[in-house]
Design goal:
Layout: H1 5-20, H2 78-92, E1 94-96, E2 106-108, E3 129-136, E4 141-151, H3 158-165, H4 170-173, H5 176-179, E5 180-184, E6 199-203, E7 208-212, E8 220-224
Antiparallel strand pairs: 1-2, 3-4, 4-5, 5-6, 6-7, 7-8
Length: 225
């Protein structure tokens, strides 16, 4: 079965932009910086400049060493990169509905039942589940399902090492049970579908988002949301 994410997530964001006037929604935007693979870093978390052949990202604001957006790395297709960026923007504008009886339903900012913030998992870390959302018209909606994966353990310390290589403090990079959350990139028409290999992982302390396209084999800095 093919994922419906290319159309559904983009359509959801376009509908959100029309309803809430969010300019451009950052779809497919890549500004500055580079994508970096976690497999390029040793366990002790070396500096970015010490990695052979690595081009290090330009610094972000004074309070954050990374740029607001990473750039597409070699070996990752434009479709994959835009899909991950679209997914990050999607999740940043979706919350688990608080409306009575609205179980496992995602709602956008500005909709009834919106909990007041995006990125499910910031306050309900263990709410791992398939979630439902709609696109299209209210009288003939299209139904889609996508997974919020809950706490990402980062058992191999890959993202932690990436963060520390970019001069993120250990206090903001370590502690996997309280720091990282994972989200699917693809949405589907059923909850019985295979979820694919793409995921995004977010550090809740600084908003850094990393994308993996090979099911946690490597990670690339996507941006800050």
């Amino acid at each position: 079965m093919s994922p419906s994410s290319g159309r559904s997530l983009t359509a959801r964001l376009r509908a959100h932009a029309r309803k809430v006037a969010v300019p451009a929604m950052l779809l497919g935007l890549t500004v500055g910086g580079v994508g970096v693979s976690a497999t390029a870093h040793a366990a002790e978390g070396p500096s970015c400049a010490s990695v052979p052949g690595q081009t290090c990202p330009a610094p972000g604001p004074a309070a954050d060493p990374l740029p607001s957006r990473g750039s597409q790395p070699a070996g990752v297709s434009t479709q994959q990169w835009r899909g991950a960026t679209t997914a990050a923007t999607f999740w940043s504008n979706e919350g688990i509905s608080t409306a009575s009886g609205d179980r496992n339903h995602l709602v956008m900012r500005g909709q009834t039942g919106y909990p007041g913030q995006g990125w499910p998992g910031n306050t309900s870390a263990n709410a791992r589940a398939w979630y439902h959302f709609e696109t299209g018209s209210s009288w003939r909606p299209e139904h889609h399902y996508i997974v919020y994966g809950g706490v990402f353990q980062d058992r191999d310390h890959r993202i932690e090492n990436l963060e520390e290589s970019h001069h993120v403090t250990q206090n903001n990079a370590s502690g996997s049970n309280t720091v990282y959350r994972e989200y699917d990139v693809n949405s589907w028409s059923t909850t019985t579908a295979s979820r694919g290999r793409e995921r995004i992982v977010r550090n809740v302390r600084n908003g850094h988002v990393y994308a993996t396209f090979d099911h946690y084999g490597s990670f690339h800095y996507l941006g800050r949301w």
